[in-house]
Amino acid sequence: MTYKAYTYQKPAIKRDHLRLGDPGPKGSEITVNSLFFEKGGRPWIGVMGEYHFSRDKKENWYRELCKMKAGGITIAATYVFWIYHEETEGVYDFSGDLDLRAFTEDCKKAGLYMLLRIGPWAHGECRNGGFPDWLIRKPFPLRDNNPDYLALARVWYTKVYEQVKGLFYKDGGPIIGIQIENELVDNSAHLLALKNLATEIGYDVPLYTVTGWNSRYGAKIPTEEVVPVFAAYAEAPWEQHTKKLPLSRHYVFDPMRNDAAVGMDIIGKSDDDGWRLPYEDYPFATCELGAGLPFSHHRRPVISGMDAYALSLVKLGSGNNLVGYYMYHGGTNRIGKHSTFQESRETGYPNDYAILNYDFHTALTQYGEAREQYRLLNLLHLFVNDFGDLLAPMVYQADEKQVPPEDTKSLRIAVRQNEAGGFVFINHYQRLQKLDDLPEVVIETDFVQFPPIAVTGKVAFILPFMLRFAGQTIRTATAQLLCSQGDTLFFAAIPGIPARYEIEGAGTFDGEQDKAITVGALSIVTVSWEKARFLRKLDREVCVGDGCDLYLSDGQVCMIGDGSFSYRKWEGGGFVSYNAERETVLVSLHAEPAEEPFTPPYESELQYGGSRKRTWKKLRVTTDKGFVTITDVYDVAQIYADGELVADNFYAGEDWRVPAALLYGKESYLVMSELRDDFYREF
């Protein structure tokens, strides 16, 4: 069957219509027009990953940021939770694991930009949305333009500013953006007042952002002062029931940015007050693509690598020009002097979350291990980082048939193109629903017709057409473009589709794994999909880990995990093998049944959903290195070491990985509450 995209229409682009901050050093200015972002006068797509410094140890920050960079992240985003830094009114703490300045400097050292989310209200599944308890007790409205609240917000903003002064982009620092507030959907005047507070204090960055969702017509924001950013999650652990949700619309191509919108065909021009967010004035930008999700006690959806990859690919194909993930790296909540810091029903919120565990089941775990999301999402990041200047100005074109998520028989396709060429996006994946195989698909664009391909199984991919590179034009390629090194292009062979390249004036070539096709100055290298999952661009050099996840730290090639590893680096027209000898870690976990040794200090977490029986085990590990795996089945599990809660988890059908260092040399116990069929689970 032949699929054709709509005919290309050149977009009108507005410039200089937003009042943002200092764009940065000459030659590297970051600016915004109505369609895309620019850096140094060239179109640019940033890749942003959320990682909360206060939910990890200071000693880990630089290493974990290096892992993020290796995974294709270019911007690290982080909340600054007010309650973490001023739990007691007037007593501020930016030391140790709360050292915001040190984290910012680590971002710069790792080669990442930074977007700072300064609140005052943050959410982030934090107690009171990040507000300190003492602030909640104040006798005036919060998140409001009353003088008392604004006075306290000014002090908070000032304290944060003092930590990062001199580290803004204009100063040569990494901070390119500030997010004001979060999820405030109906108070433009307050958002503007907060932005004005920030700029009066001294914050000065190229980008000021606010979240733009939660209304069919878009959040009410100061339209000329900020850039709205959007979200897309594959599931909703905050839904107040335990039933399966309808199939997600985020797996079909649609340029509507607002997660709350049902579809463009039913969106009115404005709400009852005449409000409509002028989407056409801003680039399509995201800050919360769900690379994972947290487990609430009553809903525990498990996000897979393909769930995250296909969702992000669909948004990219639908026009996304700032790829932002929440979370990209999991973390561990702190416990305060007066309370725990997680969101819970006890604090008036609708959900009970774990006391410590903010792993988010995302690309990098709370302890820094890699999940499949890390590998698959990097396939997109490699492409965006090397070819974002081509893609960013290209407009979204839908297939002539808009496919609903329930349609399992139709091809899900979109095209982004300009006057000269473009990219075809195909998604053959719907979370929790099998799609019918399509044995013969012919794709037709304004410029070319692709050879027939079979779209089968769980696949999602991007195909270039009329791609000009190294003096040649690739008319069509039936493999996914990854990245470049010099005059060499690297492609991933898509499962079930032979890799073929039609080069204008030279003919059609079959891709052979790891071997270069050479036409003039152009070389094309095809790697298998399996190997592409471990392909990284490290300091502009293409390296492929031999079944391992590579990253660069202090100029040294490292692997996520312990032990020796090997990899191949592209050098002089071929891959050269390298080996790195590292200590092999052997750790054993000994677990013995035990009588209850003490009343758990955080017993209430074990009783979520009603009174439950408890089972105890005494734990011992043989070293402080590596990880141990807990295979028990339970509802809620807690680990205490020398009487201190050091880890907890809600069971969702998977084994639990825990660092041996949490247990080593300590009297350690595992306590588990009884599992019942009283929460949403997928396996």
Task: Please give a structural write-up.
With 683 residues, the chain is an alpha+beta fold. It has 4 domains: 20-378, TIM Barrel (Alpha-Beta Barrel); 388-537, beta-galactosidase, domain 2; 538-584, no CATH class; 589-673, no CATH class. It contains 10 helices and 40 strands. The strands form 10 sheets. It has an 8-stranded parallel sheet with strand order 11-10-9-8-7-6-5-12. α7 packs parallel to α8.
Radius of gyration: 25 Å
Give average pLDDT, whole number. Answer: 95
Quick one: CATH superfamily of the largest domain? Glycosidases
Q: Architecture of the largest domain, CATH level 2?
A: Alpha-Beta Barrel
Please tell me what the overall shape is. Answer: globular
Total discrete domains:
4
Strand order across the largest sheet:
11-10-9-8-7-6-5-12
Count up the helices.
10
Kindly state the percentage of residues in helix.
Answer: 10-25%
Itemize the secondary structure elements and their pairings.
Layout: E1 2-4, E2 30-32, E3 37-39, E4 42-44, E5 46-50, H1 61-70, E6 75-79, H2 82-85, H3 100-110, E7 113-117, H4 133-136, H5 147-164, E8 175-179, H6 188-201, E9 207-211, E10 227-232, E11 286-289, H7 305-317, E12 322-325, E13 331-332, E14 357-358, H8 372-391, E15 395-398, E16 413-417, E17 422-428, E18 438-444, E19 453-455, E20 459-469, E21 472-477, E22 480-485, E23 488-493, E24 500-503, E25 507-510, E26 516-519, E27 522-528, H9 529-532, E28 535-538, E29 541-545, E30 550-553, E31 556-559, E32 565-571, E33 574-580, E34 589-594, H10 603-606, E35 614-621, E36 627-630, E37 636-641, E38 644-650, E39 656-659, E40 668-673
Parallel strand pairs: 1-18, 5-6, 5-12, 6-7, 7-8, 8-9, 9-10, 10-11, 23-27
Antiparallel strand pairs: 2-3, 3-4, 13-14, 15-16, 16-17, 17-20, 18-19, 20-21, 21-24, 22-23, 24-25, 26-27, 28-29, 29-32, 30-31, 32-33, 34-35, 35-40, 36-39, 37-38, 37-40
